[in-house]
Task: structure prediction
Amino acid sequence: MLFSFIAEETMFGRLLYAIGGNPDAARLSGINVARHTFGLFMLMGVMTAIAGIVTTARLNAATTSAGQNAELDAIAAAVIGGTSLLGGEGTIFGAIVGALVMTSLDNGMSLMNLDITFQYVIKGLILLLAVWVDMAQRRK
Result:
């Protein structure tokens, strides 16, 4: 809820949407793109640290391979949730819904004892489908 508020109701969030839509136009309109991008990366670093702490607490151990290959799930969750890969579109709520869909899919495939190779193939196909739908909607 906090990040949804930041993205939708604050000047920082609106500027980030402008930068994501077209960085050159944002720069030409007077937005300090480097400063706001740096602020976003700082916020992302804090969230990454919190995620690392939560993962370490959940596993009760610190391993270097925890979270490995989670990038595909994160990107697919964002795209399924309505975030455009071309930038400037998407919501926090949509990303959460996409994460719930990906988690449900992952748990379902694990319960079916599907081989991990096939799980990655299915996740990749779902990501391709989501990107195709996004591009088809942009053409309209």
Observations:
- DSSP finds seven helices and no strands in the chain.
